[in-house]
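Q: What would this chain look like folded?
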Amino acid sequence: MTKSEPRVVWPNLSNPVIIRRDLTIMASAKGSNKKEPALIENIKLEILVNNTLYVARENVGGVFVGHILSRNMGLTARVKQNLALRQDHVFQQFRSINDLRRAYSRINPKYHLLSHHEVKHLSGSNFDLENMSWILSNVCSEDGVGFIWYPVQLDLDLVVHNSSVSGREIGPKILKRSREYLQAIHSLRGVGRIMEHRAVVLEVYLAQLHEKCISIRSYVMELLNSNELFGHSRTNSLVRKAVENIDCYSNEVHQISIRPFKRSLSYVVLDLQEASHLMSSAADQLNASMMTSAGDALRRVYRSMILLQQHWVLEEILLIVAWYQNQKQVISSQRIEFIHKRLVGVYDVLTRADVFTGQRLDEGFRHQILESVIGRLVLVKSEFCKSSLNLKELYKQLKYACSIF
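A: My prediction, written as structure tokens:
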């Protein structure tokens, strides 16, 4: 039996709302390739948008942890499900959050590609977009169109205005009322309000994940640079305080199940837990060698964040390429140069030793991926040496590279 859900205004990465409910998906009938509505009873889900968008929290009935489930009322009507019954609404499965973002970009050609003059009046946000995006600083203009990233943390009670917003700081204005916000976005983009809200929620969710990863990376760097922890001035009280903070980060990251970042983050959790255990034992036993091993674990966490950053950039490039491919648009030389520079930047980071730790990015990792990713990026880069860019092949190679992470 499906019960009413606790209301979620915006998803909170640090405090997700988990429920159980009955949910219908399209699944292949036994002994047939034909897909039919199939009811999954009492499935565990994380709410992103009430009744319409979820993250799977368990493996059941062909749904796997980290899959995104998005309601499709058109499909519900086509397969003659009861529109009045909530549990009869049909949900589409997406393997990752970026698969769903690409699907939304096919539905709305303007998703992620907005004219600069169209968004000038949507200036301001409640935090610094420049610092919150790994790719916003590389926004370029192509015939008046630029790639717009939405790392916004929407605050319905606070509006922060910025009277001078450059092309690199463009973002949606934080509106005081959710209704006003949805109306503004709807009038700008011309897509159904519910669908558009889901698209924005995905960007909010990713922004929170982005912020969390930056916070972890900065904190780990601070710990490793601390003479009070890893130097001769070490004190047990400071070590135990650091253990508390590491445990807090570990628990928060452990809550994240969304793909395609789930696998990378699961290794981060293991390294954070190892560092916590070693540092706690070092404080109890006054064992300096354990702190050395803890430092190794923390360096893996730091380098995992660098790798995740490069994965993120590749996923965003894939989104751009997918848009051009789906819309059958001619890609200009300026946009080709933009994509190529981003790819070269990722390649350079992956093929060099990390500046902070002086180590290869996947040194000591449980899951070695670097050689495979680099090999695939060589093939991706080779596409730019041809007389004309083959978007289909570029998309294929990029998607394969992203899947390795």
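The beta strands are 18-28, 35-49, 53-56, 68-71, 90-94, 113-115, 145-147.
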